[in-house]
Specification:
Elements lengths: L4 H11 L4 H15 L4 H14 L6 H13 L2 H11 L5 H17 L8 H21 L4 H23 L6 H12 L6 H37 L2
Helix pairs in contact: 1-2, 5-7, 6-7, 6-8, 6-10, 7-8, 8-10
Protein name: DUF969 domain-containing protein
Pfam families: DUF969
Keywords: Membrane, Transmembrane, Transmembrane helix
Length: 225
């Protein structure tokens, strides 16, 4: 029962608002010692876990790269690009991004786009520039709303697109759950039935983006003398 001390440390650490990484580290060390492992074995377990899940460290590469790109005018260039496009609107641009996000997720490329590497440095600034072109100057609340639309579009595209991919975790989870009730289905069958849902999500969110375009255009028209 001593190995359960690690759980108590996690609960106490989170209640006291200590740093989560330090809490998990302390819990793992205490659990290992309580299980009779020597310090070198615990260190080896940490190394193996990090090596098996080393893709987690990619974020430490993505974030500095995004920061360097933004510091060198990435957002300004994105705004300049959208300003040169005739007929570009927030709704049209985000609809295009929604389709792209769904298609990439449908073939398993869920990490190609995302909030830190795509929405924050590119999609949101371009959407803001398009909104300014449609409605004129935006206040802080309106800018935050446009950013929210960009983030929501990414979420919807990923969520309803990834289920089309055969080897995604959700498909395998559904297959395993149905097998417990004696229903045998192949992953391909589940993926095929995810396609109508993805199309419905595209149409519904596309309609919402169309309404956003109309609202911004109407606001500009009402602001003119």
């Amino acid at each position: 029962m001593m190995v359960l001390l690690g759980i108590a440390i996690i609960v106490a650490g989170f209640l006291l608002r200590f740093h989560p990484l330090l809490v998990i580290l302390a819990s793992a060390i205490v659990t290992g010692l309580a299980a009779g492992l020597d310090p070198l074995a615990i260190l080896a377990a940490f190394g193996k876990a990090f090596n098996d899940a080393r893709y987690v460290s990619i974020i430490w590469i993505v974030l500095p790269v995004v920061g360097l790109l933004e510091a060198n005018g990435l957002q300004e260039r994105a705004r300049g690009l959208i300003a040169k496009m005739r007929g570009a609107t927030v709704g049209r641009f985000l609809t295009f991004y929604l389709i792209l996000r769904q298609m990439l997720a449908a073939v398993g490329l869920t990490s190609v786009a995302g909030h830190p590497q795509t929405v924050r440095p590119l999609v949101a600034p371009i959407a803001e520039a398009a909104a300014e072109r449609q409605a004129g100057d935006l206040d802080d609340a309106e800018r935050e709303e446009i950013k929210a639309w960009a983030a929501a579009t990414d979420n919807i595209g990923l969520f309803f697109g990834e289920d089309i991919f055969l080897a995604i975790g959700s498909i395998l989870l559904i297959k395993g759950l149905l097998e417990q009730y004696g229903i045998s289905l192949e992953p391909l069958q589940l993926s095929v039935w995810a396609i109508p849902t993805a199309i419905a999500a595209l149409l519904i969110h596309g309609f919402r983006l169309w309404r956003l375009d109309r609202r911004l255009t109407r606001r500009r028209a009402e602001g003119q003398p």
